[in-house]
Write a structure and sequence with these properties.
- This protein is an alpha/beta fold.
- Among the domains are: 137 residues, no CATH class; 120 residues, Collagenase (Catalytic Domain).
- It is 22% helix and 24% strand.
- The chain contains 9 helices and 16 strands.
- The strands form 5 sheets. It has a 5-stranded mixed beta sheet with strand order 13-12-14-16-15.
- A hairpin with a 7-residue loop joins strand 10 and strand 11.
- The longest helix is centred in the C-terminal third of the chain and has 19 residues.
- The N and C termini lie far apart (64 Å).
Length: 369
């Protein structure tokens, strides 16, 4: 078996309102203004008209609405000096906002680069599968809320390498789907019967139908097993573990950073065969191998049975599907369109919201350079 690197970091709201590196004073050079520029990118698409960006450095502030492509450029007056530049992104019309506000702090060395900010929607319309077309509220904080004080949440985040202050969502790269799934018929000495295989693949197929996506494909164990020289990075290995007394199943995802490289699913054979006692066992553990954790924030196939058993569903609910699709959309924007800031900026705005009235006054009486 390969060496396993378990990455299950917690996202601390106390560290989110930070930028890259330690903040240093920002001052204009040669009398030129400091310009903060970038673009906002709505996860899942949507209209960015009416989104406003406020930049503040010390006592000076400026604001502007983004253009039709989400772009913005805010010059701060010459002579501005502060520990950092703060950015606040929000809808001008806050009565019925479509996105979470975003809040971030940029250190001096970070201001010159383009700031690509992925806006996290407040509602998600499901695309495909059993719940196609349904719109679901997806407040971000509850996706990170743990079932207990020391527990992780449904979303699992990790710090971006070489870019402190950023949080990226853990998951499988989209190009690796459908993932290869192979039963261990050799190493652990447990026989896999035809009935075991049928039970497993019935639930896996129902999971795919619920999401409306090709997630898994059967594979031969010799083709899927890792070797000393490495191995495939698109495999979930399934084991029947006779040592799992009192545990129905255990699904885990192995990652190095935010990309999952390997899934491990261990099952109690007796629990698999007792579908009435353990409904949705395979779906529950497969969700873990896909990178999602327990939750007690909504009725879910991965509800923690020890802490909120009444919220456990036998298959993914519409909330599960909406949050999974949201995570996939955010990851795609960060990987394909260089979206830099996303969930950490939204969570920072939740943890430390700005006074909307003060922000409005800033835009009405800005200092003249």
């Amino acid at each position: 078996m390969p060496s396993k690197r378990w990455i299950v970091p917690a996202v601390s709201l106390l560290t989110l309102f930070t930028g890259a590196g330690s903040p240093r004073a920002i001052a204009a050079q040669d009398g030129a203004p400091v310009v903060v520029s970038g673009r906002v990118i709505p996860a899942g698409g949507g209209e960015v008209r009416g989104v406003r960006v406020i930049a503040r450095a010390g006592a000076r502030a400026d604001s502007a609405r983004v253009d039709s492509a989400g772009g913005f450029a805010l010059p701060l007056a010459p002579g501005s000096a502060a520990d950092a530049v703060e950015l606040w992104v929000d809808a001008v019309d806050s009565v019925a906002p479509a996105f979470h506000p975003a809040r971030l702090r940029l250190a001096r060395r970070d201001v010159a680069r383009e700031q690509e900010i992925v806006l996290v929607p407040l509602r998600w319309t499901i695309r495909g599968g059993r719940y196609d077309g349904r719109t679901v509220d997806v407040p971000l904080a509850r996706a990170f809320a743990g079932a207990c004080k020391a527990c992780g949440g449904f979303f699992r985040g990790s710090s971006a390498r070489g870019d402190s202050g950023r949080t990226v969502l853990r998951g499988w790269p989209a190009e690796r789907f459908p993932l290869r799934v192979a039963f261990d018929r050799e190493w652990n000495g447990e026989k896999v019967t035809a009935g075991d295989s049928v039970s497993f693949w019935r639930e896996a197929a129902e999971l795919e139908e619920t999401f409306g996506a090709d997630l898994f494909r059967p594979a031969r164990f010799p083709d899927a097993v890792p070797t000393s020289g490495g191995g495939p990075d698109d495999v979930i290995l399934v084991w029947f573990d006779p040592r799992m007394h009192g545990i129905a199943g255990l699904g885990t995802a192995v990652s190095d950073g935010d990309d999952i490289e390997y899934g491990d699913l261990r099952l109690n054979r007796a629990a698999l065969r007792e579908s009435e006692t353990y409904p949705g066992l395979v779906a529950h553990e497969l969700m873990h191998t896909l990178g999602f954790g327990h939750t007690c924030a909504w009725r879910s196939v991965v509800a923690d049975v020890r802490r909120c058993p009444r919220l456990r569903a036998p298959m993914p609910t519409e909330e599960d599907v909406a949050y999974v699709q949201l995570a996939a959309a955010i990851r795609a924007l960060q990987r394909e369109r260089r979206g830099r800031w996303s969930v950490e900026a939204a969570l920072a705005a939740i943890a430390a919201p700005w006074d909307r009235g003060l922000a409005a006054r800033w835009t009405e009486s800005l200092p003249v350079p």
